Write a sequence for this structure.
């Protein structure tokens, strides 16, 4: 057997590809579902927190800043293990995919809040004053004048952050969420062949390369053009 | 309430596992000292190769960078740690972690350096060259210092991410902080060790997170 054949037999064995592509495909579905859910809840919660912070209620803001700082500093895997293995001890049993969704959403919300808040504070004071003097209320000014600009400013940093956090769905394998990596490692230990793991890696790359390329485009498209 | 305190903030258990976690923290710091300089150096090399626009290396390297930014780090780690042995290459956990981190971090750092270098106008290069500095001297003394200053928030923020990322080494039984805490958790049937690990991570990283916020605000007002 030549080296090349051995390489193909180890990482791209045809029978293995045929046998395991359905489970990898199922993993892709789970990954996409959780990633989509994380993006929606994370960004919305981040937006909500940033808006709330704009009202500058001291007690609320302290809580928001603590939440944001904790989830920016804490490795997501620590939070995942803490919630997944800790909560059953106090009588709360959450399914593993719910834990993964919850933790990644909170992490994304923390980063998104910080990015939107930076956008809100960078809006010139004159914008607020002009909007208020036309008769808009504080909330209306925030929603219709300031937020649209803050969101636009936040697009490039938010894109990269969102990609990085959705990739963390792979961490779900540690608590047994049936996403791509989990399907791949399970299939690998069944089959005693590295092909399923390679299929998993290829699936991730196929899934995320377009996202990374679009992210690169968005970054240059929106960069340094401040309103 | 008592049950919650017992499960998450059991001081007796925390005191008992403290030495174990401290050793884990030491290993985490050791890992950081290994992978952060490696990533910074690899990233600089990637950025320089990318801006030199060498036709032979540009597209393959760009593809590689996107590949490593698309693959979740844990996937790379599993591939190197449990995939390579099938090809007869058995890496130690440390080597597998270092290799996976190198691929991931040098791609991210590379893109950051590149953005920094590209933010420096052609005029800087031309002015420095016309004073008699060579290309390398121009790069080192004129362009890089300004480039690094421009992307300092991103460099620090990425470094925070790398430190946080070291926690995935626990998956391949590398005895860092999270691994130690998780082992203590399964021995004591109590989550307090993981809470303690979380507190250690926060104490370690919170100042850096604050620094990132300050740097970002500083650059924004320029």
């Amino acid at each position: 057997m030549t080296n090349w054949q051995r390489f193909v037999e180890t990482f791209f064995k045809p029978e293995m590809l045929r046998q395991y592509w359905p489970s990898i495909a199922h993993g892709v579905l789970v990954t996409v579902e959780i990633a989509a859910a994380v993006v929606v809840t994370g960004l919305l919660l981040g937006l909500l927190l940033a808006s709330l912070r704009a009202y500058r209620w001291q007690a609320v803001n302290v809580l928001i800043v603590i939440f944001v700082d904790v989830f920016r500093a804490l490795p997501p895997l620590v939070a995942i293990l803490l919630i997944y293995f800790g909560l059953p001890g106090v009588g709360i049993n959450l399914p593993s995919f719910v834990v993964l969704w919850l933790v990644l959403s909170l992490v994304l919300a923390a980063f998104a809040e910080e990015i939107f808040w930076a956008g809100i504070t960078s809006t010139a004071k004159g914008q607020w004053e002009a909007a208020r003097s036309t008769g808009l209320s504080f909330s209306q000014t925030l929603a219709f004048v300031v937020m649209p600009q803050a969101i636009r400013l936040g697009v490039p940093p938010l894109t990269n952050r969102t990609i990085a956090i959705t990739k963390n769905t792979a961490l779900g394998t540690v608590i047994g969420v049936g996403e791509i990596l989990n399907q791949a490692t399970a299939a690998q230990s069944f089959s005693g062949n590295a092909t399923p793991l390679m299929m998993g890696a290829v699936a991730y790359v196929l899934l995320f390369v377009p996202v990374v390329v679009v992210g690169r485009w968005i970054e240059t498209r929106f960069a340094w053009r401040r309103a | 309430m008592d049950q919650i305190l017992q499960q998450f903030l059991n001081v007796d258990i925390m005191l008992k596992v403290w030495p174990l976690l401290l050793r884990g923290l030491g290993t985490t710091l050791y890992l950081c000292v290994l992978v952060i300089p490696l990533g910074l150096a690899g990233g600089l090399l990637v950025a320089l190769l990318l801006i030199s626009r060498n036709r032979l290396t540009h597209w393959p390297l760009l593809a590689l960078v996107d590949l490593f930014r698309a693959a979740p780090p844990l996937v790379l780690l599993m591939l190197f740690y449990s995939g390579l042995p099938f090809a007869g290459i058995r890496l130690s956990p440390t080597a597998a972690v270092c290799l996976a981190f190198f691929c991931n971090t040098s791609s991210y750092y590379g893109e950051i350096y590149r953005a920094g270098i590209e933010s420096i106008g052609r005029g800087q290069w031309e002015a420095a060259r016309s004073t008699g500095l060579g290309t390398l001297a121009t790069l080192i003394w004129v362009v890089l210092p300004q480039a690094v200053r421009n992307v300092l928030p991103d460099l620090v923020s990425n470094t925070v991410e790398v430190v946080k990322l070291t926690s995935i080494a626990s998956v391949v039984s590398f005895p860092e902080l999270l691994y130690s805490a998780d082992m203590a958790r399964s021995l004591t049937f109590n989550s307090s060790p993981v809470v303690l690990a979380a507190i250690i991570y926060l104490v370690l990283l919170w100042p850096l997170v604050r620094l990132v916020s300050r740097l970002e605000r500083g650059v924004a007002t320029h």
Remarks:
- The CA atoms of residues 43 and 65 of chain B lie 10 Å apart.
- The mean pLDDT of chain B is 92.
- Residues 2-220 of chain B form a domain with the MetI-like fold fold (CATH 1.10.3720.10).
